[in-house]
Amino acid sequence: MAVIPVEHGLMLATVLFSIGLLGLLVRRNILYMLMSVEIMLNAAGLAFIVAGARWSQPDGQIMFMIILTMAAAEVAVALALVLRFYRQFQTLDTDAANTMRG
Amino acid sequence: MTTMNIAYPEIIVIATAFIVLVADLFMTERSRAALAPIAALGLLVGIAVTATLTPVTGELLGGRFAMDPVAWWFKIVFMLASLVAVIMSMDTLDGRARVRPRGMGFRGEYYWIMLSSVVGMMLLISARDLVTLFVSLEIATLPLMVLAAWRRDDAKSGEAGLKYVILGALASAFIVYGFSILYGLARSADLNEIARAVATEKSPAFLLAVALVLAGTGFKLTMVPFHMWAADVYQGAPTPVTAYLSVASKAAGLAFAFQILFRLFGDMLPQWGALIALFAAITMTLGNVVAIVQHNIKRFMAFSAISQAGYFLLGFLGDASEGVPAMIFYLLVYVVSNLAVFACIVWFANETGKEQIEDYRGLSLTNPLTALCMMIGLFSLAGIPPLSGFVGKFFLFSIASKAGCHWLVAVAAVNSTISLYYYLRVVRQMYIEPADKEAQPPSPSTSISITVAILTIVVSILGIVPTIYQHIHAATITWLASLQ
User: Fold this and answer.
1) pLDDT in tens, A39-98
2) Does position B366 have pLDDT exceeding 90, yes or no?
3) What is the average pLDDT across B158-176?
4) Do A73 and B187 count as a contact with CB atoms less than 8 A apart?
5) How many Cβ pairs within 8 Å bridge chains A and B?
6) Is the dihedral of CA B122, B123, B127, B131 positive or negative?
7) Structural element, H or E, at residue A5
8) Is the pLDDT of residue B26 over 70?
9) Which residues of B touch A51 (CB under 8 A)?
10) Please, what sign has the CA dihedral across residues A70, A76, A77, A82?
């Protein structure tokens, strides 16, 4: 069985993380921003799996599962707030979220 | 040593949290007023058990959960802060406020979520591997995001929660990506083993991991330039939650910074002195300068809290055996002083529904004692002798001076003067401006009056009684020895 080199996995993780970060900075729609954060978290999870596979340890996969759970919890909170945000502002544009200044 | 009793504080708080949640199911809306006393009692028992814990060192779960003297102090601070926050929330949630904020209900869930976040913070300082550290960090911060958005009908509260969630998730992503690189480099998820493995590491990957983790830590500590969330979240969150956020999230941020900077990167910390000094100078200056022009008292306290984070950073310079006790002592002082001020703000918001600094005019005529307590709290934050804030700042500044950063001590001293100016703005409104004739004078509330009185006494004597600092110092020596 061909083994995927560690470098490839880590490179993919870096690319995914950068895409997520860029998306978060560029996008103005809250849903897309949340998706970008998810991509970043999953990139970190992927890096954990690659590292765990490299050292033949279960820790990497355990951490990945925990990252998934935590990301789900965060999204649960965030989506509830997005729903509220939409009801109050009738838009998902973050530029509307500027009621507080100073 | 593997004895279960070192985990009793956490177990008690978790049990209390679930008792509150389940009891809420079977209660009528009227009898739910009993929930806050239950939560407060649980926290009191937790503090008592922690205080009588012997020995204060030990580990559980194969060394993944460890208790040590520094963790002991942090846990006491976390539980004290949340105890005061629970008491402060009572008036608002039980409907005793004259101006009821809309959408503040669901008492059972509120206290449950608050207690959950305390448990997360307590686990955070006891964590000894990446998994526990990350999970406890999330348990500590996710509830805070929910609490910030607690007022259902309020657009500002929702906006605060949403900003906090998105930026908090971003910080988590940074931290966890940094952790993944560290794990890959060190071949272990144990913090002490990672510290040993990366002690001489100089590779670009390691530097990336350090940068990512430190950025995440900076976010939790509201370090400039990662402070952007704080002002909006503090302003939008319900006032008792802001009080809790300002002390608990700061304490948790400091606990996380301890884990990262002392346990994980302890060998490299002395080389980062210049960088930390720079961040400290920027953080305290920006926080102070922006606070001058604020009109909303919660936003004002947010920038005050940001500048206080800059003072905390001074403790990471120089010798850890001096810096650690100074930071823990200042944390204690900061928590007590800030809560004393916030208790007055919560009470004032309950009574009048107003939160502009100008609304406080003439408070010394209508409620002289409350105004006095608030002034003492503000003066302690500014660092006026003989209040505890002065002593705490004195220790931190002397560390920066011993580390050779004399310019930073000068910057910090100038910043203290600036902070005195804007804290005096509030005092001026309370003492010099005439009271509003038409407005109904706010009437005192029993629970908050008692809290404010006790906190003010503690603020006044904490700096004079030397035993506390001596105890913290002794605790630090054993803790530092265990790091090696």
Assistant:
1) 999 999 999 999 999 888 898 999 999 999 999 999 999 999 999 989 888 888 888 777
2) no
3) 92
4) no
5) 128
6) negative
7) none
8) yes
9) 180, 183-184
10) positive
Question: What would the pLDDT profile of B317-326 be if each residue is shown by its tens digit?
Answer: 878 888 899 9
Question: What are the φ and ψ backbone dihedral angles of A93, each rounded to 5 degrees?
Answer: -80, 125
Contact indicator for A63, B131 with CB cutoff of 8 Å: yes
Global model pTM greater than 0.80? yes
A28 touches chain B (CB under 8 A): no
Say which residue the tokens 């402070």 belong to: B227
Query: Which chain B residue lies closest to A96 (C-alpha atoms)?
Result: B159
Integer Cα distance of A99 and B414 in angstroms: 33
Interface test with B, best of A17, A24, A67 (most B CBs within 10 A): A67
Cα torsion B404, B410, B413, B414 to 10°: value is -160
Query: Which pLDDT does position A101 carry in this prediction?
Result: 64
Tokens (6 digits) for B436? 């509003």
Tokens of B94: 């039980």
* pLDDT tens per residue across span B210-226: 999 999 999 999 988 88
State the pLDDT at residue B353: 86
The phi-psi region of residue B318 (left if phi > 0; otherwise alpha if psi is between -120 and 50; otherwise beta) is: left
What is the C-alpha separation between B239 and B217, in angstroms, rounded? 25
| CB-CB neighbors (< 8 A) of A32 in chain B | none
d(Cα A58, Cα B405) in Å, to the nearest integer? 45
Instruction: Return the CA Rg of chain A.
Output: 17
**Which stretch of DSSP H or E encloses residue A91?**
none
